[in-house]
Amino acid sequence: MTLTRSQDGPDPSAGGPGPSAGGADPSGGADPSSGGLYELLTEFAGRSAATAGTGKDPVNLPMIRHWCEAMGDDHPAYRGPDAVAPPTMLQAWTMGGLSGHTDRSSAHEELFALLDGAGYTSVVATDCEQEYLRPLRPGDEISFDTVIESVSALKTTKLGSGHFVTTRTDVRAGGQLAGTHRFRILKYAPAARPRGPEPTPGTETEQPAGGRSAGARSAGSRAAERPAKARRPRPVVNRDNAGFWEGVAAHRLLIQRCGDCAALRFPWLPGCADCGSPEWDTVEASGAGTVYSYVVMHHPSFPAFDPPYAVGLVELAEGVRMISDVVGVPYDKVRIGMPVRLEFLRVDEELELPVFRAGGED
After folding, report:
1. What does the pLDDT look like over 249-308, one tens digit per residue?
2. Is the peptide bond before 300 cis (omega within 30 degrees of 0)?
3. 194, exposed or middle or buried, with CB in 10 Å at 0-12, 13-18, 19+?
């Protein structure tokens, strides 16, 4: 069984990992690839990023339970004395946690140092592919090896120019191959942010009687030079979720419904988690929901957001859950069980998102 799952990453309208537009680095410097950087990067393909790594914990029921609760997955296969781990937890058993990885190779560190030194200091995950060969069960001791599969030539996205790095991790349980995890990130130099509008000629000299204080002129100059607020990250639209975003554009929140067992599912997936059927259609959500859980974001700060703000896990009236902004109420007034109602928020000239307004009453 093979699963492909996309994650937040560059705007797909910019071509994703397609051919580079070439030319200068949008961060302002010359293209480092012209100086032979890409030839150095390609030498890392096939080198080990981690050898004989070990999972920090054996496969265990508490982690499985937490995962299932967070994902809203109550499949009976993941409970009881004969429980198996959800296949999509494959990467979880190899993660380094807050203390980080201790098993990465020198090649991995050298590659990232080379990219950082060339100005590609930002990183975003773009997609992953997983293949499952055998189920993982509580008590399985995890080991893994990771190889650097490829480093792309310079690519240009709306986030900025950079190189896609693809790694493949072979995950083993008791020495037996259990699955593979292919992960792709973009190491990039952020594109220059657009500046605010230039001041109209003459505005600094055409003053009311009595003139304008030096402090006011200085504040006005700073305001004119202040960059425009950064745009929100673009969602990754692929063949598995394109229908959802088409619904959003039409102000409809669409939920997948299995064509065989009629189970509803969200987020959108290529197959049913209950019966495995690839057949599906959609139903439109009524828009009513309640806050199932939430988190208040204080740190880290992102350019397009103004912390603190609340992010909610909203349980829709139809029974599925989705993550979105909770609006219309101060962040410290959001509560579990609070009724909310769907609305669509235009965040810029290109992007509209489903959000939930506190109150929930029509």
Report:
1. 999 999 999 999 999 999 999 999 889 899 999 999 999 999 999 999 887 777 788 889
2. yes
3. exposed
